[in-house]
């Protein structure tokens, strides 16, 4: 067993800040989306991911990987979204065992409305509090962390194709 | 209604990276603590927070605020930790309506063992992937985010007094 390298003061501040800031930011954005559109942040991320596909449709396995969700958690989320008519599921044409998730027109309209609230929140509670070079730095190191932990390499592009 | 300022490419990368990186890091650290010591990351954070108090005891309301947890979520966590003999609860001496949470000797021993696993994980999956100046930057801006969102100002010092 190798000796544990305990955290130095700066490292502790960074780790604890990351832990607490991410929890507080997620809770706040969750609350704002929920109050305005009855969506959780995870619901919202699923709708965004689907909206980025040319035909607004993605295999469930790919959607799970790119959302950082387990298959069972995604399945649970999709049932709730489907019950509200925001998404639908259907068998893949080229693989009977696979399922596709699809964004409905109602889902796109809801996303379109919720995006205003969400983007205002992301600015107010995170981006506006960072210096421009810290925004660039965060983009860079967070992608390094994602590549390191996403061992399947399935997260796909972090760059979305639409403006929200 | 003011016009929504949509996110520029760099801002989108930063926000999505933060979202996905924090989820992946938390999931990984959770998994490692769970497999080695049957603790969640939230359990661990509670034990650490208590261990930092001179008598390893803190009011439940202060513990909730400094852990970023709702009172009901903390209460649920505490029941599980208490059932394992890692913490205990008792009425505050100076306020009959208030409750104190306390770390037991068994809780301290478990924390002491789990800390090795946890710190190795924090280094491997986060800190070692950042440049030294990015670690300093993260400490600085994450504390800014915490101050902004922690409207009650109850999070307390982000700097712990012990080495884990």
Oligomeric grouping of the chains? homodimer
- Strand sequence of the main sheet of chain A, in spatial order? 1-3-2
Stretches of chain A where pLDDT is under 50 for at least 5 consecutive residues are: 157-164
Assign the CATH superfamily of chain A. Answer: Winged helix-like DNA-binding domain superfamily/Winged helix DNA-binding domain
Can you name the CATH architecture of chain A? Orthogonal Bundle
Question: Could you walk me through the main structural features you see in this protein, from its secondary elements to its overall organization?
Answer:
2 copies of one chain form a homodimer. The first copy, chain A, has helices at 9-37, 41-51, 60-67, 71-83, 105-125, 132-149; strands spanning 57-59, 87-92, 95-103. By secondary structure, chain A is mainly α. Chain A has one domain (25-149): Winged helix-like DNA-binding domain superfamily/Winged helix DNA-binding domain (Arc Repressor Mutant, subunit A). In chain A, a hairpin with a 2-residue loop joins strand 2 and strand 3 (95-103). In chain A, helix 1 crosses helix 5 (105-125). The longest helix of chain A has 29 residues, at 9-37. Chain A is globular, with a radius of gyration of 18 Å. At the A-B interface, helix 1, helix 5 and helix 6 of A face helix 1, helix 5 and helix 6 of B.
Briefly, what is this?
Two copies of one chain form a homodimer. Chain A has one domain (25-149): Arc Repressor Mutant, subunit A.
